Amino acid sequence: MPHTTQRILIVDDDPDILEFLHIILEEEGYEVVMADRGDSLMQLHNGELPHLIVLDVLLSGKDGRDIVRWLKSQQETRKIPVLMFSAHPSAEQTVRQAGADDFLAKPFNIETFLAKVAHLL
């Protein structure tokens, strides 16, 4: 186990998915921060940066791919791995082109999700 708890930020506009992922990740010992809007990613600062960002491709009013491009262009956040997910499997190619480190199609298997999280951390 790492000395510091690894912080994961989940961004999804579906409260059920947020809660579901929150429970799964907390059971695994991660510190979980949740946001239901992509705008919250624009306010990340060094002191509270997550070790991993789990981001939905389609958020109300924002495209997750634009958010990833922005995160990867910023000095503070460019090294944070981003795992994106979508109900559209065809989104994988555009997600990777935008700079996401990994992709998961919804609905997903919990073991697969946790394996991807562990791999990215």
TrEMBL record:
Residues annotated with 4-aspartylphosphate modification: 56
Keywords: Phosphoprotein
InterPro entries xref list: Bact_response_regulator, CheY-like_superfamily, Sig_transdc_resp-reg_receiver
Pfam families linked: Response_reg
Domain Response regulatory: 7-121
Protein name (Swiss-Prot/TrEMBL): Response regulatory domain-containing protein
